[in-house]
Write a structure and sequence with these properties.
The protein is mostly helical. The chain has a single domain (about 20-80), classed as Arc Repressor Mutant, subunit A (Orthogonal Bundle). It is about 40% helix and about 5% strand. Strands 1-2 form a two-stranded antiparallel ribbon. Strand 1 (about 70-75) and strand 2 form a beta hairpin. The longest helix has 17 residues, at about 50-65. The protein is globular, with a radius of gyration of 12 Å. The model has no long low-confidence stretch (mean pLDDT about 85).
Protein backbone atom coordinates (compact mmCIF):
# COMPACT_ATOMS: atom_id res chain seq x y z
CA UNK A 1 0.00 0.00 0.00
CA UNK A 2 2.75 2.39 -0.83
CA UNK A 3 1.43 5.88 -1.39
CA UNK A 4 -2.19 4.85 -0.80
CA UNK A 5 -3.92 6.17 2.29
CA UNK A 6 -6.87 4.38 3.80
CA UNK A 7 -9.92 6.51 4.57
CA UNK A 8 -10.12 7.67 8.15
CA UNK A 9 -12.58 6.10 10.53
CA UNK A 10 -15.78 8.08 10.96
CA UNK A 11 -15.85 10.13 14.13
CA UNK A 12 -17.69 8.62 17.04
CA UNK A 13 -20.65 10.80 18.01
CA UNK A 14 -19.42 13.55 20.31
CA UNK A 15 -15.83 14.41 21.18
CA UNK A 16 -15.57 12.01 24.13
CA UNK A 17 -16.49 8.35 24.47
CA UNK A 18 -19.70 7.90 26.49
CA UNK A 19 -19.47 6.46 30.00
CA UNK A 20 -22.69 4.41 29.94
CA UNK A 21 -22.71 0.95 28.36
CA UNK A 22 -25.84 1.59 26.28
CA UNK A 23 -24.43 4.86 24.97
CA UNK A 24 -21.06 3.21 24.24
CA UNK A 25 -22.77 0.50 22.21
CA UNK A 26 -24.82 3.06 20.30
CA UNK A 27 -21.73 5.15 19.54
CA UNK A 28 -19.75 2.15 18.24
CA UNK A 29 -22.69 0.94 16.14
CA UNK A 30 -23.17 4.41 14.66
CA UNK A 31 -19.50 4.64 13.74
CA UNK A 32 -19.52 1.17 12.15
CA UNK A 33 -22.70 2.02 10.24
CA UNK A 34 -21.10 5.07 8.67
CA UNK A 35 -17.74 3.41 7.99
CA UNK A 36 -16.65 2.67 4.44
CA UNK A 37 -14.40 -0.21 5.52
CA UNK A 38 -14.09 -2.61 8.46
CA UNK A 39 -12.50 -0.99 11.52
CA UNK A 40 -10.69 -2.12 14.64
CA UNK A 41 -10.90 -0.76 18.17
CA UNK A 42 -7.75 1.35 17.76
CA UNK A 43 -9.10 3.08 14.63
CA UNK A 44 -12.38 3.85 16.38
CA UNK A 45 -10.63 5.02 19.55
CA UNK A 46 -8.43 7.39 17.55
CA UNK A 47 -11.51 9.47 16.75
CA UNK A 48 -12.12 10.57 20.35
CA UNK A 49 -10.03 12.50 22.86
CA UNK A 50 -9.34 9.63 25.25
CA UNK A 51 -8.15 7.33 22.45
CA UNK A 52 -5.68 5.05 24.26
CA UNK A 53 -7.83 4.81 27.39
CA UNK A 54 -11.05 3.80 25.62
CA UNK A 55 -9.64 1.30 23.11
CA UNK A 56 -10.20 -1.64 25.52
CA UNK A 57 -13.81 -0.52 26.11
CA UNK A 58 -14.40 -0.24 22.37
CA UNK A 59 -12.85 -3.68 21.87
CA UNK A 60 -15.26 -5.09 24.48
CA UNK A 61 -18.24 -3.49 22.70
CA UNK A 62 -17.05 -4.91 19.35
CA UNK A 63 -16.69 -8.38 20.89
CA UNK A 64 -20.19 -8.18 22.38
CA UNK A 65 -21.68 -7.02 19.07
CA UNK A 66 -19.98 -9.96 17.35
CA UNK A 67 -21.26 -12.46 19.93
CA UNK A 68 -24.80 -11.14 19.49
CA UNK A 69 -24.54 -11.32 15.69
CA UNK A 70 -24.71 -7.57 15.02
CA UNK A 71 -21.10 -7.31 13.82
CA UNK A 72 -18.80 -9.57 11.85
CA UNK A 73 -15.05 -9.94 12.10
CA UNK A 74 -13.68 -9.12 8.65
CA UNK A 75 -10.09 -10.36 8.85
CA UNK A 76 -9.52 -11.43 12.41
CA UNK A 77 -9.07 -7.93 13.72
CA UNK A 78 -11.44 -5.51 12.01
CA UNK A 79 -15.19 -5.34 12.41
CA UNK A 80 -18.17 -4.36 10.28
CA UNK A 81 -21.88 -4.31 10.99
CA UNK A 82 -23.76 -7.28 9.56
CA UNK A 83 -26.16 -6.31 6.83
CA UNK A 84 -29.69 -7.70 6.87
CA UNK A 85 -30.63 -9.98 4.00
Amino acid sequence: MHGRRLPRAPRLPGRTFPSGEVEQTAAVMAALASATRPLDAVALAATVRQDCRVAPKIAAVLAALTRMGFAAVADGGTFALRLAA
